Amino acid sequence: MGGARGAGWVAAGLLLGAGACYCIYRLTRGRRRGGHGLGLRPSKSAGALEEGTPEGQLCGRSARPRGGPWESQWSKTSQPEDLTDGSYDDVLNAEQLQKLLYLLESTEDPIIIEKALITLGNNAAFSVNQAIIRQLGGIPIVGNKINHSNQSIKEKALNALNNLSVNVENQIKIKIYINQVCEDVFSGPLNSAVQLAGLRLLTNMTVTNDHQHMLHNYITDLFQVLLTGNGNTKVQVLKLLLNLSENPAMTEGLLHAQVDASFLSLYDSHVAKEILLRVLTLFQNINNCLKIEGHLAVQPTFTEGSLFFLLYGEECAQKIRALVHHDDADVKEKVVTIMLKI
Fold first, then answer.
1. Domains in the chain, ordered, with CATH?
2. Pick from 74, 72, 68: which is nearest to 49 by CA?
3. Which residues span the membrane (predicted)?
4. Can you give the pLDDT at residue 338?
5. I need a surface site. Which of 107, 140, 266, 284 has the fewest CB within 10 A?
6. pTM score
């Protein structure tokens, strides 16, 4: 290192303390070894569809991340990015998390910011740390990074917020970022890492009904991304729409959404099972909500081109009936269940 840069590290060490200085040491050691000095944690992303279960799940009591339907994002790249050594036993304690948050807040080095966000996000996958990070004032520190011009930093900040959002109390603080996340998701590049990270966060934030109303003005945009995105994007949007579709208070907003007629092609037999099952469940959920006593007692006027006209038109009915002969048993079972209720 040059003299000026070395003096900078000394100053950083005096300010941040031994814990944060050790993080910097591991980071610089990884640089000198060409980026191979730090280990990775395994991906624990989840997303299995379960009927009657929201596409997300609020935190349990286990200290370790659990498999299941909630959306957790772990570091998963060929390049080392976590500032710890990647072991399950390397979960940071409260003091270390405080130093990491100070490091994240005080540095302007984009490489350190990104790696600190990944380390924080990985630690936020553990339920005990979700509360600690909130109590240390960490949510606004992470939330401010979603404004960063560096797209990779923005993505890592969204991933960290996503893991933190598994905790109900954390959602109260994270909800202030929902509008901005929506704007980024719908105005940014299609199928980008930032878009997917934003969709995952919105999915977790809509597991309960508490914050779903904040997406009311973005429903048509969600369907647009659904129809234009690739397979991964389609699945992620559908996970979010399924959360909304289970809430009777969101039914009218969903049915009013202006949706291109190509939406019905998602009910074709050749569509991937993970997409087909979800669009069938979307229809099922909406239909169930319409049947709730007293809901939409005075039927609103739905305009032509709305989701209502697509779902309750003859073309959709024909497509669903045809799926009774689908090769997959799960699809056939889902169709039979729907047809018994319409």
1. 90-207 (1.25.10.10), 216-341 (1.25.10.10)
2. 68
3. 6-25
4. 94
5. 140
6. 0.80
pLDDT digits (tens, 9 = 90+) for 293-319: 555 555 678 899 999 999 999 999 999
Q: What is the pLDDT of residue 292?
A: 80
**H-type alpha helices, 34-136:** 94-106, 110-123, 127-135
Of 191, 199, 204, 53, the closest CA to residue 125 belongs to 204
Residue where the block lists tokens 């009591």: 61
Those residues whose C-beta lies under 8 Å from the C-beta of residue 234, and which sit 6 or more positions away, are 226, 266, 275
- Separation of alpha carbons 165 and 240, rounded Å: 14
CA distance linking residue 39 with residue 118, whole number of Å: 12
Is residue 278 within 8 A of residue 266, CB to CB? The reply is no
Cα gap 75→41, rounded to integer Å? 6
Helix (H/G/I), strand (E/B), else coil: 47: coil
DSSP summary character for residue 306: B
CB 58 within 8 Å of CB 168 = yes
Spatial contact of 145 and 157, defined as CB atoms under 8 Å apart: yes
DSSP string, 183-207: HHHHHS-TT-HHHHHHHHHHHHHTS
pLDDT bin (cut points 50, 70, 90) of residue 9 is very low
d(CA 171, CA 161): 9
Question: For residue 271, what are the CA distances in angstroms to 141, 169, 189, 276?
Answer: 42, 38, 24, 6
Please state, rounded to an integer, the average pLDDT across all residues of the chain: 82
Give the Å distances, CA to CA, from 263 to 228, 286, 288: 10, 16, 20
